[in-house]
From TrEMBL:
<protein>
    <submittedName>
        <fullName>Cytochrome C</fullName>
    </submittedName>
</protein>
<dbReference type="Pfam" id="PF09626">
    <property type="entry name" value="DHC"/>
</dbReference>
<dbReference type="InterPro" id="IPR018588">
    <property type="entry name" value="Dihaem_cytochrome-c"/>
</dbReference>
Length: 131
């Protein structure tokens, strides 16, 4: 049995992005995320089967529309992410509890379950007291 924790749900990127991301795991956003070939193939198959193109979630449709077939592997670089996070002060992302725009879990309690709707987001005002 393989256990892998994804930092974002597969439906937030299209197959093309997952393939690009999985093709260079040794340079995974500055980290070495290399896995054995068997594990790699299992993960890639899962990501492809659950990518944005296969999802009925609104966010998946919005991501696909936002990317317009661009080769983006960082969700934070998508127009959809930028639009949905535009009212968040940039200082929040450098807060010691958040650390970066890529740390979805800091605000989205159940991101690993694919729950990104507004009612599943932490009150980010608590982060301003730790700046």
């Amino acid at each position: 049995m393989h256990h892998v924790i994804l930092s974002i749900p597969p439906f937030l990127l299209p197959k093309k992005s997952w393939n690009i991301l999985m093709s260079d795991l040794e340079n995974h956003f500055g980290d070495d995320a290399y896995v054995e070939e068997e594990t790699h193939n299992i993960i890639l198959k899962f990501l492809e089967q659950n990518s944005a193109e296969t999802s009925t979630k609104e966010a998946a449709f919005m991501i696909l529309d936002s990317l317009k077939n661009k080769d983006i592997i960082a969700i934070t670089k998508s127009n959809y992410w930028k639009k949905t996070h535009k009212n968040i002060d940039n200082n929040i992302f450098s807060n010691s509890l958040v650390k970066s725009k890529a740390n979805c879990k800091a605000c989205h309690n159940d991101i690993e379950k694919g729950l990104i709707e507004d009612e599943n987001i932490k009150n980010i005002s608590s982060f301003t007291s730790y700046m």
